[in-house]
Automatic annotation (TrEMBL):
Domain Ketopantoate reductase C-terminal: 184-304
Its job: Catalyzes the NADPH-dependent reduction of ketopantoate into pantoic acid.
EC number of this enzyme: 1.1.1.169
Upper lineage: Bacteria, Pseudomonadati, Pseudomonadota, Gammaproteobacteria, Alteromonadales
Source superkingdom: Bacteria
Protein name (Swiss-Prot/TrEMBL): 2-dehydropantoate 2-reductase
Annotated pathway: Cofactor biosynthesis; (R)-pantothenate biosynthesis; (R)-pantoate from 3-methyl-2-oxobutanoate: step 2/2
Alphabetically ordered keywords of this record: NADP, Oxidoreductase, Pantothenate biosynthesis
InterPro entries assigned: 6-PGluconate_DH-like_C_sf (IPR008927), 6PGD_dom2 (IPR013328), ApbA (IPR003710), Ketopantoate_reductase (IPR050838), KPA_reductase (IPR013752), KPR_N (IPR013332), NAD(P)-bd_dom_sf (IPR036291)
Enzyme class: oxidoreductase
UniProt source species: Shewanella electrica
Coiled coil regions in record: none
Domain Ketopantoate reductase N-terminal: 3-158
SUPFAM superfamilies for the chain: 6-phosphogluconate dehydrogenase C-terminal domain-like, NAD(P)-binding Rossmann-fold domains
Similarity section: Belongs to the ketopantoate reductase family.
């Protein structure tokens, strides 16, 4: 069984360790400029557990994206787990597609929604699944990650042939608190709500996630969620408003000390995932001839602070 992970960021490396613990160590496909590149096949990857006293080491086969167009192993990949940022998915997967066999199944796992719609026209019959995770991971070095939060993971079918039962079982066995759901879109929308509130507000106000529990943010949070609910309804996604608001608040409390990924992206002047979070809401709303002024304003404010799309 050949599983590969495209993107050796914090979540990619965490899942690689979890798969290795379940005896299905994946290949890692990484960018050539990363210190994790294929030139170094000897330095182990380290997983630091939450209590910071326990460490695990695994050796993964690393293929740099600079070499992978010639890599003979690519046609053997049966499951490609893509843990890149949302905006990196289409260019990176498109470059790989000519080398993948028709039996390869792709699983996208990132914040936000929308990359699957851009990728689908190119898939030529390959199976596609989508997932969401609230596991926390922090990259401490090129080959070191810390598992910062247990969290839950959900996966589900999107299009084309379904993932084989064998691979599905391996994935669920490897990733703690994970499940395969009949309908993945409602789960993605719930995570979208969390990110649509926490990510831009923490980035714009330069605060950690927990700060958003202060009363002064509540009107803005309610407005973001109310617009999200309107689009979800038009998209036939049924979400319970009270449950959504309490989930968002629960994440703020559980991750109170953390700085959101968008906060960090803005701080380090990196491109953010806003186009696939609040931007996705605005786009879907426009398709229904609906305007979302609050979410649109957040998109504009974040885009003024971070590098624009290429
Ligand atoms: O997913 C996250 C992110 O930072 O992108 C949350 C859940 C908001 C945790 O920080």
């Amino acid at each position: 069984m050949t599983i590969a992970i495209l993107g050796a960021g914090a979540i990619g490396q965490l899942i690689a360790h979890q798969l290795a613990n379940a005896n299905v160590a994946p290949l890692l496909l990484v960018k050539p400029d990363q210190a994790t590149s294929s030139n170094d096949q000897t330095t182990p990857f380290v997983l630091e557990q939450q209590d910071q006293h326990q460490h695990q080491q695994h050796q993964f086969e690393v293929i740099s994206t600079g070499d992978y167009l010639t890599a003979t192993i690519l046609p053997d990949i049966e499951l490609l787990i893509v843990t890149l940022k949302a905006y990196q998915v289409v260019p990176a997967v498109s470059a790989l597609l000519p080398k993948l066999s028709s039996k390869c199944h792709i699983l996208l796992l990132h914040n936000g929604i929308g990359s699957h719609l851009e990728l689908q026209p190119q898939l030529d019959g390959l199976g596609l699944s989508l997932g969401t995770t609230s596991q926390g991971a922090l990259k401490l070095g090129p080959r070191t990650v810390r598992h910062t939060g247990e969290g839950m993971s959900q996966f589900g079918h999107c299009s084309g042939p379904e993932l084989s039962a064998e691979l599905r079982e391996s994935l669920l066995r490897a990733i703690p608190n994970s499940s395969w759901v009949e309908q993945i879109m409602p789960a993605l929308w719930q995570k979208l709500a969390v990110n649509a509130v926490i990510n831009p507000l923490t980035a714009l106000n330069n605060v950690p996630n927990g700060a958003l529990t202060a009363a002064r943010y509540q009107p803005q949070i309610d407005a973001i969620l109310s617009e999200l609910q309107q689009v979800a309804w038009l998209e036939h996604i049924r979400l319970d408003a009270d449950k959504l608001a309490s989930t968002v608040r629960q994440v703020m409390v559980l991750t109170a000390e953390n700085f959101s990924s968008m906060h960090q992206d803005v701080l380090h002047k990196r491109r953010t995932e806003i186009d696939y979070i609040n931007g996705y809401l605005v786009k879907r709303a426009a398709a229904h001839k609906l305007a979302l002024p609050i979410n649109q304003q957040l998109v504009s404010q974040i885009n003024r602070l971070s590098p624009a799309a290429a």
